[in-house]
Every structure is written in structure tokens, then in C-alpha cells.
Structure to design on (355 residues):
């Protein structure tokens, strides 16, 4: 059972979102949380007091596995990414109707990022062939983007059609981070590093800063990397903290832009953890952008946590935890530090949605 205090925090937040400011004002978006339950397989929606209230049955296709789920910044769509024998594949799930649509069927497709309005996603397609980047709209239309096929990461600027993208020619060449306008027709180099992969570049909520993870450009798959931040024009790049690297855990801005939540590796001296993902020990930390103050949120000494996701009001974080081979979703109150599991059965892929 969830504590009364944690239920109250979430309930007050939801209630505030449902109130209209004045007649004629745009409708306030409601916030809700979905997670994926493995058995029986479904995306489960949670109420303001974090109790399951409804579910959307969803079975992962045969011979595939669920990689992750990515909510639109606004709207009803959830992007599901699968790992299949022929590569990654993505699906649109409309959480209002339960309908599922696969935008790319003729090649592999890999999620890069949502457009800021939630009406389309950027996908890398045909990774092992004629690789390219497209913009796939939730209503079915597709556009080709004029950016390099070596792109492996992309993030839209809030409230804008502009975006940043990162690419590398391959091992030993480092990587470059570019800002793009006009569907990629005009781009500008913001930052390059010949010794590291620049990964998970993410705009701050006001679009004025970019956080990213530096992953050493080496043959070691899992290492200790670095969390960096710079201004949106590429100026003032600076290291904030050491961070886990290679496992695919992005750092996350708080909604007010004052904090970043990230995953820190706790056993950097363990050479086995450099090559085996199952040997990782990690925890979630918070860093204050201006002061540099660091606050540890979880305290695992066995197992690991994955990418943290902020609730829209900035009070809660949801994240996957893996202990003894079992994955589940936990919720942390960033003020009190209280942490509780969300379900009693294995689950993953928390997604805060605003619709």
C-alpha cells in the first residue's frame, strides 16, 4: 500500500490541474501515469492517489521484447519501441481508444524523440541499409529530414520546430551536436568532442540550456561518463557530475528547470560491470543547476535504477528498478525522499502523460 502522505501529494497535484483559471481560458491538461505490467500484459493507468483504475491490453509480438515507452509531450499517444529479430520497431498507441498503429513497416525504425507539440515523432529508419531520419505524424503522414543518417539522438526544443541532433561516423571518431531549423535544411554545429559520444542531449523546459551525457568513445560498452550542460547556443559548456554511461539512461530536467535527475554508477571500480549490464549498481541523484548541490535519492547497494521521469508538477519521480533480476516501477517523493513500489507484480516503463 502507498502511504497516505504520498497519495495526498499526488491528489493535490491532480486536483490543481483540473481547475480552470477563468471562463474562456484554454482547458488545463490533465496529468496521468501509465506503466506496463508484464503479466497479464497491459498498460495500466493510475488514479491521482496512485491506484490502478484502467488498463489497455497490449501483448508484445512474438519473438520481440518491449524496449521502452515514450509519452507525447501533450496528447493521447504513447510511442512503444520493440526489440525484434530484424531490428527495432515502433508503434503508436492511442491511450484513449486503445488502437495501435505501426508507422514504418518496410524497415527497422528507432525512436529518436517527440516533436514539441506531440503530433509527430522523429525516427531513424533502415539503420543497416540506407539509414535516414523521418518525421512520422500520428495521423499517418511522413516527411524525410535533411540530416545525416549517422544521427543517433535527437531532441526537440520546447515550443518550437527546432531541434538538436547528434551523430558519429563510428568508433574512434567522437561525435558532433548540431542545432537544426527548417526540418534540418539549416543546421549549426554547437559542440563536438573527438573523444566522447554526446548522448541524450535534452533541452531545459525553457529551451535555454541543453544537458547531455558524455560516453567515452571506446570499445568498453559500459563505463562511467559525465553529465554536462551548456547554453542552447553551445556556449558555456561545463561538467556537472559523473554519471553512468553506456546503458542508455538519460538525464531528466525538472519541470521548473532547476534540477536534473540522473543515474550514477556506484561500482566504478568493478571491471565486470564495464562489460556485463547485470553487474551494474546504480542510484538516482539530483543536481541543482545553479549551486551544483547534489542530493542522492535512492540508496541501492545491489541492483540498479534506470532513467528517472518527473511528474509534471516536479514533486515525484518514477523509474524502473531491477533487483535480483526482477524489474518494477517505483515512485519517489523528491521532497521527503519516500520511495515506494507502484505494483506488486513485475512492471516497467513509467510514462507521465498530459492530455
Amino acid at each position: 500500500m502507498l502511504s497516505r502522505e504520498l497519495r495526498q501529494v499526488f491528489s493535490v497535484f491532480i486536483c490543481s490541474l483540473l481547475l480552470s483559471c477563468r471562463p474562456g481560458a484554454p482547458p488545463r491538461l490533465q496529468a496521468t501515469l501509465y506503466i506496463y505490467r508484464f503479466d497479464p500484459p497491459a498498460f495500466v493507468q493510475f488514479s491521482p492517489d496512485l491506484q490502478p483504475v484502467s488498463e489497455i491490453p497490449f501483448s508484445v509480438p512474438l519473438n520481440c521484447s518491449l524496449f521502452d515507452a515514450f509519452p507525447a509531450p501533450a496528447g493521447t499517444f504513447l510511442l512503444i519501441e520493440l526489440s525484434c529479430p530484424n531490428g527495432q520497431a515502433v508503434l503508436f498507441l492511442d491511450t484513449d481508444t486503445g488502437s495501435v498503429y505501426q508507422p514504418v513497416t518496410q524497415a527497422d525504425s528507432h525512436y529518436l524523440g517527440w516533436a514539441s507539440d506531440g503530433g509527430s515523432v522523429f525516427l531513424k529508419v533502415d539503420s543497416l541499409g540506407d539509414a535516414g531520419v523521418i518525421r512520422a505524424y500520428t495521423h499517418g503522414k511522413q516527411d524525410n529530414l535533411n540530416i545525416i543518417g549517422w544521427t543517433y539522438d535527437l531532441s526537440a526544443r520546447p515550443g518550437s520546430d527546432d531541434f538538436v541532433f547528434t551523430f558519429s561516423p563510428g568508433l574512434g571518431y567522437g561525435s558532433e551536436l548540431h542545432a537544426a531549423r527548417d526540418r534540418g535544411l539549416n543546421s549549426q554545429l554547437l559542440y563536438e568532442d573527438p573523444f566522447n559520444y554526446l548522448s541524450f542531449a535534452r533541452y531545459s523546459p525553457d529551451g535555454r540550456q541543453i544537458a547531455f551525457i558524455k560516453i567515452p568513445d571506446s570499445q568498453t560498452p559500459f563505463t562511467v561518463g559525465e553529465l554536462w550542460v551548456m547554453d542552447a547556443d553551445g556556449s558555456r559548456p561545463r561538467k556537472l557530475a559523473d554519471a553512468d554511461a553506456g546503458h542508455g539512461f538519460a538525464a531528466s530536467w525538472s519541470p521548473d528547470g532547476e534540477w536534473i535527475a540522473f543515474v550514477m554508477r556506484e561500482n566504478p571500480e568493478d571491471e565486470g560491470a564495464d562489460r556485463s549490464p547485470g553487474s551494474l549498481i546504480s542510484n538516482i541523484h539530483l543536481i541543482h543547476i545553479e549551486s551544483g548541490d547534489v542530493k542522492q535519492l535512492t540508496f541501492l547497494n545491489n541492483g540498479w535504477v534506470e532513467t528517472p521521469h518527473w511528474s509534471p508538477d516536479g514533486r515525484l519521480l518514477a523509474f524502473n528498478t531491477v533487483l535480483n533480476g526482477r524489474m518494477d516501477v517505483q515512485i519517489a517523493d523528491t521532497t521527503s525522499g519516500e520511495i515506494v513500489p507502484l505494483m506488486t507484480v513485475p512492471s516497467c516503463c513509467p510514462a507521465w502523460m498530459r492530455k
User: Anything to note?
Assistant: The helical segments are 4-18. The chain is about 5% helix and 50% strand. The CA atoms of residues 153 and 295 lie 28 Å apart.
